[in-house]
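Milestone M4 deliverable, item 7.
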Amino acid sequence: MSYNESLVLDLVGLIYESAGDPSVWPKFLERYSDTVRCTATSLLLYDTDRRAGNIAAAVGFDPVDLRRYNDYYFGVDPWSAHAGRRIVAGAVLPGESLCPSCVLERSEFYADFLRPMDAFHEFYGIVALDGSTASVISSIGPRRRGPFQDEELALLKTLMPHLQRSLALHRRLGSLQSSAQSALTLLDQLPYGVVVLSADGRVVLINRCARAIIDQRDGLTVRQQELRSCSGDSNKRLQVLIHGAAATSRGCALHSGGAVNIARPSGRQAFRILVTPIHRAVFSPLAPGPAAIVFIVDPQARFDSSVAMLAELFALSRAEGRLAALLLQDRSLREAAQELGVSLNTVRTQLKKLFEKTGTRRQGALIRALLLSPAHLTRWSQMTASQQRRISDGGRAFSAP
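Output delivered:
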């Protein structure tokens, strides 16, 4: 029996689709299992040093059997136990080459695990070997069908290089996604807004702080995926800066971006905006990608800094740390004294200590030193993962308000 080209191409297509979308693996495994007429097929990880592992994806297994295998029977599987030096990347072998049928038949693994599933024969392929960890595709079939034949092994050998490339691609994509996630998490910790724009000026990323600013609808908005000012004059200036910066990133202009203040209908201090291009060498010039970054500063934003972190960073007392946190929230000395429940003279004494410990002489320089410290980032890092996700989800995937 041989397999037609259309079938093989269909399996190969599913393999590469699975690289970008792991949820497709069961579809491939099901189609592959039907093709080789087996009871079940699995993708598993096997640590050859510890002789331990688990099934990562499978079809044909009852969920209870999967748990039993991962929890116990992996350790007594004679096929795995006898693999030894045959675990070589790209190898495709029948189970009989690992463990003779007579040995398998007398094993606990067969009596208590395989036989209730009506399974006896196996063949497998080593997709990859990373140190002592092997990525394996394994198929098992009923005793009555007989051992798997050369045709089934030949099909897996044909698919093997595609499985290997798909796994490598999946790992690469996973690494990129992890790096991107780390970068986005860092952007969400910044105490000012960051909006990343494409070459045509559309929003492709917006961080937590920028989303909070835009949600105020107080001078800045996003319409049709474009960052805009509510004022006609300032919006013209903003669009000139954005498109000029984007043109520079595309290599079509020499605009370096610039700054603009965006007035707020509420009468609060204007947003301070800085627009800058992203150097095109960072990305492929032929591929779409970020082309400009807009930084948004709200001069009246209140920084919820960690008192404990301020105290640790600058060797402050608890009282001095509380005062520093209030000054970062634009409190006057008199307001700080009232909130702390102490006299104005006490606050002034503590302020002198802050100057001494931060190496500053004036209140403006003190605030700058505090702002440049990482203390205001700790609130985010101390949140639970679910709290971070709830905040981040609002800024990661942009949808026009």
